[in-house]
Each structure stands twice: as C-alpha cells, then as structure tokens.
Design goal:
The longest helix is centred in the N-terminal third of the chain and has 21 residues. A three-stranded antiparallel sheet has the order 1-2-3, with no helix packed on it. Strands 4-5 form a two-stranded antiparallel sheet. The radius of gyration is 28 Å and the shape is flat. 44% of the residues lie in helices and 8% in strands. The protein is built from ten helices and five strands; from the N terminus they run H-H-H-H-H-H-H-H-E-E-E-H-E-E-H.
Length: 312
C-alpha cells in the first residue's frame, strides 16, 4: 500500500444484546430478586395501618387455603370466587354476625396486592373481576332476604354537631387547635392524612377566606377555597387564625397542626400523626393524653350541612 493511500480501519460490529427470553436461569433469578427488592422498598413506605390491613387480608387467605386445600400462591379467578364464598360464611366483627361485604371486598384486594408484592406472584390484571361479581350476587341475595351485615354507612357530620363540638373545646391551646382542626377538616372534606402533613404555607389568606392546599393526598392533591363562615363559632377561617395566633405559627415551612407537650402543654415542632380517632363524633369523651384529633375516614359534610349555609 502506497503512502498516498489511506488505511482502511476494520469495522467492529457489536454483538446484539441478549433477548429476555434468552436469559439463563441465574440471570432470571437475579432479576426476580431485584424486582422483589424494588417492590419491598415501595411497600415499606406504606403507612403502618395499610401494612397491617394487608397482613390481615393475607392471613385470612392462608386460613382459607388451609381449610379448602387450595395452594397458597394459587391466585386465580376461580380460587378467589371460592374465597368469597368461604368469607361469606365466616363470623363477622360482632357476635352472631357474618363477614360484611365491605370487608370481603377489602380481603380480595389485600390478597391480590400481597401476592404481587410479598410473594412475586403475577396474576392477570382483572384476576379479581369474577370474585367481585360473585360478591355482588351475594349482596343482592342478602338485600332481598332483608339481612343486614356490617355497621352500615357512617352518619353524616351536621352543622348542629359542629356547634356542640366547638362548644366542648376548652379555651386553651389544645381546645383552640382541636376546634380549628375539626372545622378545617370539615370545610375541605378531607382525609386525616391530608391535614396531618399540611404546612403553614399551605393555608394562604385570601379576601374571601383561605385557600387550603392539600398537596399530600392518597386521593388527589387539590386546592380548596375555604370562605368565612356565617356562624363565627364554627367558622374554619376564624378558627385557623385563632390557632396560628395562639400557637405563634410564624415559620411557613413548619407543620400547620402541631403536637402539644403532654406535661407542659406547649407547642412542639412535630406535626400530628394520622390515627384511628373519632373524637369529633364524641366531643365530651376527651382523654388526658394529647392524642391526634383525626379519624380514619374523610370528614364529609352532608348535603343538609352545606345547604344550611355555614360556609356562606
């Protein structure tokens, strides 16, 4: 080759990456382990109450499997229908009753989620469809026969209840906080976790009242306008202003709803934790401990509440 000619560089063609179906057994096992670890990390971040519920659901499933001879990991449409029929005959929360339909529906969800998250089972997406259809059939039969199961729908929180709750709150830091929290909870129709994680900056003053930014939500983040109430004693805006002034909440990044010291009753930096409480349903049943005045379900105003004009 003469000096005037350019040398030809060899072309190296990289090997094609292995297709997933070509992975060997060791690679598949390693990838499955990585998937399980990822699921575990996400699952560990769930609230403790959610983890407990899923554990109870899975324990119910394993009890069914032991009684029926179904393999524990056999999560399939047919076995879930059998699970529903079995749950339907099991004792309920109260003596002399059977399992409520809402509990059965949750057992189905918890079992499927636990199978995926804890045991690496990969059932089809609509694996629970037949089971829920079977549950609907059983509910129709129950209603036709006049049978009643479960506690039923919770009674609505009405304006007259808010008046009694507000009057029952003492004129100290704890009472001022609890009054403001219950009224704001009602005004935004929120869940306990949505308010528990609120910061002071999430309540912005407006000429008409407050804009409550529920940025942390398992349902849907949203901004809720909260106007001044026509009844000063149950006005959420005035109650919030009284709480911020009494607690000296000047740090916009601090928790909006603070804990109080059990002994000294001073405002602490830590926020309230969502807990199973229904104090605002029973305003006179107050304990000495500084428990979180939030309850599990959403504090939803009824149609009659809104028509009374307490937020007018």
């Amino acid at each position: 080759m003469s000096d005037g000619q350019n040398a030809v560089e060899p072309v190296v063609i990289p090997a094609a990456p292995a297709r997933p179906e070509k992975y060997d057994t060791a690679t598949r096992a390693a990838l499955d382990h990585i998937d399980r670890q990822a699921v575990r990390i996400i699952a560990d971040d769930r609230p403790s109450s959610t983890r407990r519920s899923y554990a109870q659901d899975w324990a119910s499933w394993t009890k069914f499997c032991a009684a029926s001879g179904v393999p524990v990991l056999a999560i399939a449409p047919g076995t879930l229908v059998m699970f529903v029929d079995w749950l339907w005959t099991q004792p309920g929360g109260k003596k002399g009753t059977c399992t409520a339909p809402s509990t059965i529906d949750r057992r189905i969800s918890g079992t499927v989620v636990s199978a995926r998250a804890e045991h690496g089972v990969r059932p089809e997406d609509d694996v629970a469809r037949l089971a829920r259809n079977r549950l609907k059939q059983l509910v129709k039969e129950m209603e036709a026969s006049g049978e009643s199961r479960g506690r039923g729908q919770a009674p609505p929180l009405l304006v007259e209840h808010l008046v009694k709750i507000s009057a029952a709150c003492p004129d100290n830091l704890r009472g001022i906080r609890d009054r403001a929290l219950v009224l704001m909870h009602f005004a935004v129709a929120g869940h306990e976790h949505e308010l528990a994680f609120n910061r002071v900056r999430d309540y912005a003053d407006t000429p008409a009242g407050i804009h409550a930014d529920l940025r942390v939500s398992k349902v849907r983040p949203r901004v809720v306008p909260v106007p001044y109430g026509s009844h000063p004693s149950i006005c959420p805006v005035r109650a919030w202003q009284a709480w911020t002034e009494a607690a000296d909440l000047t740090d916009p990044d601090g928790y909006a709803w603070r804990r109080l010291h059990n002994r000294w009753h001073t405002v602490m930096d830590s926020g309230l934790q969502p807990a199973v409480h229904r104090r605002h349903r029973h305003p006179r049943r107050r304990t000495r401990r500084d428990r979180d005045p939030l309850h599990r379900q959403a504090c939803l105003p009824s149609a009659s509440s809104t028509s009374c004009g307490w937020l007018a």
